[in-house]
Amino acid sequence: xxxxxxxxxxxxxxxxxxxxxxxxxxxxxxxxxxxxxxxxxxxxxxxxxxxxxxxxxxxxxxxxxxxxxxxxxxxxxxxxxxxxxxxxxxxxxxxxxxxxxxxxxxxxxxxxxxxxxxxxxxxxxxxxxxxxxxxxxxxxxxxxxxxxxxxxxxxxxxxxxxxxxx
Length: 166
What we know:
This protein has six helices and five strands, in the order αβαβαααβββα. It is of the alpha/beta class. The chain has one domain (3-165): CinA-like (Maf protein, Alpha-Beta Complex). The chain has a five-stranded mixed sheet with strand order 2-1-3-4-5, sandwiched between helices. Helix 1 (3-18) runs parallel beside helix 6 (140-165). The chain is globular.
């Protein structure tokens, strides 16, 4: 089992213990987080659905990301990542959502938004929404893998914190 699958398995156990479900919203990772989650046997008990919203139109149509957010901040921004996570919750039966949007490379970077820049967000139904911007190094595949690892570990951390606070 891969490192990502082991992480997904731990996340699944925590969600299952809470009776909660996960939804994912991904752009630059193209569904890799959802793939890692669904590689875990029994994930249908705690994974609701994944949205692959690579284009801006998909972000708007599938997740309800406001056009004004994309115009003002761009697809690779914490504002867009937050809107993606919140949209995944709104359009699913998930209790938790993770979102990933970024520039995996090797092209596509621009001043202020270099290749390897990834914005992630985590949202909890009836709870908060947090976002984070990271700069990853490496090939396209390495940037994407690092983003998925951080998205899953960040979700696990937040679910475990919610369990401790309950």
